[in-house]
Amino acid sequence: MTDTEVEFSPAAAPLAERLLPAALEIIARYPEGRSRSALLPLLHLVQTEEGHVSPNGVAFCAEVLGINKAQVGAVATFYTMYKRRPTGEYLVSVCTNTLCNVLGGQEVYDQLSEHLGVGHDETTGDGRITLEHAECLAACDYAPVVTVNYDFAIDEATPASAVELVDQLRDGRRPTPSRGARICSLKEMQTQLAGFADPREGAVADGLAGAPTLRGVTLAQEHGVAVPNFNLDTPITKTKPSPREESKGTVTTVVDKVKSAVSTVTPGHAGKTTRAGDVKDPQTRTAEQRNPDASTPDKTGTAEAKKPVASNPAEAAGTASNEPAGDGKPAGDTARTEEAK
């Protein structure tokens, strides 16, 4: 795709003017015919400019990929990392899921909400902070945790440490986080999420896992707990068959069904065909076994059914005069037949 192949609408044109080269670079990462897979990073790319996915951003993504806006909107509204309204320079997320909550995560969130004067997914008047509670931030070993623009900022957070953090951010400072990369703006983070390198010093962090993460391993080493005869280089053995192999013999695959239904020519029967097997529907086969020539009514179904037991007076009044159906005839047919005579 080149920039001359797409004629952008007035809604998408301003973003296309600024983002098209980067968008084409993202699309080029994917195989030909699979450009739609680029939608996720493209939505992050849009947020590098506007801080959220605006209607113009939806239009730009749709037009550069050749899909409709409804398809883009379906993705943008599904994932919480795509913001549908303007978001602050710093997105402060507090984990309030089970473990973080037990260890004080809700108190941290409540104190921040009161201090900032905003609730969930709301932004302070100065445009600096957007506050949100998160269901899980994947750091139970450091609970409760607070992130800023998806990077860990405070481990084992307290209401006081969280308030100190947001005050520094509102003053234009970027405090050093407990671990991980240096704090950046939300738009700078979207650049990384779109798949582009962030040139800032310390933009990407690296290092060994912390003590809380390694606590289980440390305890095992201290107490001599180990798996007998364990060798790190031992290849992982196959402990169970693949789903396809597991289904063999119990659930016939589509290919097997096709093969069994095809007529085959057997040796010694040139010119004659034989069926490869019984391919009847199980329900059809059962019905034929019960009544091979359909000469008598089926007595195994509702023919012997009794009147239903009413569960309340209204139901009893409505069904009192209804006879149960039998022999495949609708209820009341026998009465009408007798009247006709």
TrEMBL record:
The record's annotation in PANTHER family points to: NADH DEHYDROGENASE [UBIQUINONE] FLAVOPROTEIN 2, MITOCHONDRIAL, NADH DEHYDROGENASE UBIQUINONE FLAVOPROTEIN 2, MITOCHONDRIAL
Source lineage: Bacteria, Bacillati, Actinomycetota, Actinomycetes, Micromonosporales
Biased region (Polar residues) positions are 231-240
Q: Where is this region: Disordered?
A: 231-341
Question: Where is composition skewed (Low complexity) in this entry?
Answer: 249-266
Q: Which UniProt keywords apply?
A: 2Fe-2S, Iron, Iron-sulfur, Metal-binding, Oxidoreductase
Sequence ranges of Basic and acidic residues compositional bias: 275-291
Superkingdom in the source lineage: Bacteria
Its cofactor is:
[2Fe-2S] cluster
One example of the protein's molecular function in GO is: oxidoreductase activity
Recorded hits in Gene3D superfamilies, A to Z, give: Glutaredoxin, NADH-quinone oxidoreductase subunit E
Which CDD domains does the protein's record reference? TRX_Fd_NuoE
Please give the name of this protein: NADH-quinone oxidoreductase subunit NuoE
Under which EC number(s) is this enzyme classified?
1.6.5.11
Its family remark reads: Belongs to the complex I 24 kDa subunit family.
Q: Name one Pfam family in it.
A: 2Fe-2S_thioredx
Q: InterPro entries under this entry?
A: NuoE-like (IPR002023), NuoE_dom (IPR042128), NuoE_N (IPR041921), Thioredoxin-like_sf (IPR036249)
